[in-house]
């Protein structure tokens, strides 16, 4: 069966297609197997929707869903140099892939090796949807309840513009490997006090883990009083066995990198 490819350029046209044709939505196409394209009657490519810009509105940073990883790095480096997403996305995959992989497709697909999802979950981002369900929803809710959002397309990702220092690590043997896990840590300083701390590990048995307990225990503590080793000891992460190492191995390695990341953030 040959598929019909459509390239809508406005919201009404796109929503009409979503409601009528139950199409396969195409972002960068790097996560869609060829067989799935062949078996779909209608493929809707989002490339003409004009969702390929990043901008700030005074409160949030809005990232268009069809921005490639490369474009996001380029635009965010201009708006917020040193942003944790710049560090994460500039290391993902290879250059040709970074030129194709889109933000919307990466949130919708959420592979275990995602370099995007850790920073977005740590920052408390939301998705802006159009289609059957429209409006803004916290990204944690979106990825944990995918069935509720069938028939909707991600138009943008809304990232709170927080004054936080970020640290990002991907566990790989060589740079272009799929990471065994990724870790994102964020810290906000208020004088000599740790006003806010967030952490997320992606690649665990439950797919991702947000370090809520550790965040609560660190808030309001003086920087000099944080016992980094003791905090790292509290970190309990369950990983599945992977080709690149056992679950137990990843649990130990993750602890080491958490400790290094936290120490690095506290020294800034
Ligand atoms: C060899 C290889 C290495 C990779 N390495 C990494 C890596 O190190 N780090 C990393 O982060 N990623 C990596 N990736 C990318 C990752 O595995 C996925 O392929 C990618 O995240 C999918 O994004 P896409 O834009 O290509 O989505 P697509 O392939 O276009 O779509 C993926 C899914 O999302 C849906 N979709 C697409 N856009 C939207 C939208 N706007 N709203 C709702 N649904 C949508 C599609 O219908 C489909 O179900 C790698 C990919 C490859 C092939």
Automatic annotation (TrEMBL):
Residues 1-164 form the FAD-binding PCMH-type domain. The keyword Flavoprotein applies. This is FAD binding domain-containing protein. It holds the Pfam family FAD_binding_5. PANTHER family: XANTHINE DEHYDROGENASE SUBUNIT C-RELATED (PTHR42659:SF2). Transmembrane segments: none annotated. It comes from the Bacteria. Keywords: FAD, Flavoprotein, Oxidoreductase. InterPro entries: Diverse_Substr_Oxidored (IPR051312), FAD-bd_PCMH (IPR016166), FAD-bd_PCMH-like_sf (IPR036318), FAD-bd_PCMH_sub2 (IPR016169), Mopterin_DH_FAD-bd (IPR002346).
């Amino acid at each position: 069966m040959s598929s019909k490819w459509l390239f809508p350029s406005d919201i009404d046209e796109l929503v009409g297609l979503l409601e009528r044709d139950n199409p396969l939505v195409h972002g960068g196409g790097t996560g869609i197997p060829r067989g799935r394209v062949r078996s779909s009657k209608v493929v809707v490519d989002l490339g003409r929707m004009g969702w390929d810009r990043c901008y700030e509105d005074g409160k949030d940073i809005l990232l268009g869903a069809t921005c490639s990883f490369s474009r996001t790095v380029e635009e965010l480096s201009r708006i917020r140099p040193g942003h944790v997403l710049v560090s994460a996305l500039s290391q993902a995959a290879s250059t040709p892939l970074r030129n194709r992989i889109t933000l919307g497709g990466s949130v919708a697909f959420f592979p275990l090796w995602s370099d995007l999802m850790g920073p977005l979950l740590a920052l408390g981002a939301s998705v802006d949807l159009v289609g059957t369900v429209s409006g803004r929803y916290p990204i944690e809710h979106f990825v944990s309840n995918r069935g509720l959002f069938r028939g909707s397309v991600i138009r943008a990702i809304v990232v709170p513009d927080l004054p936080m220092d970020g640290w990002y690590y991907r566990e790989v043997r060589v740079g272009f490997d799929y990471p065994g896990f990724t870790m994102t840590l964020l810290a906000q300083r208020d004088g000599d006090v740790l006003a806010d701390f967030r952490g997320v590990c992606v690649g665990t048995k439950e797919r991702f883990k947000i370090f809520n307990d550790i965040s609560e225990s660190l808030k309001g503590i003086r920087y000099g009083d944080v016992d980094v080793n003791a905090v790292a000891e509290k970190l309990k992460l369950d990983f599945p066995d992977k080709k690149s190492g056992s679950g137990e191995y990843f649990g130990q390695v993750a602890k080491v990198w958490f400790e290094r990341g936290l120490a690095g953030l506290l020294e800034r």
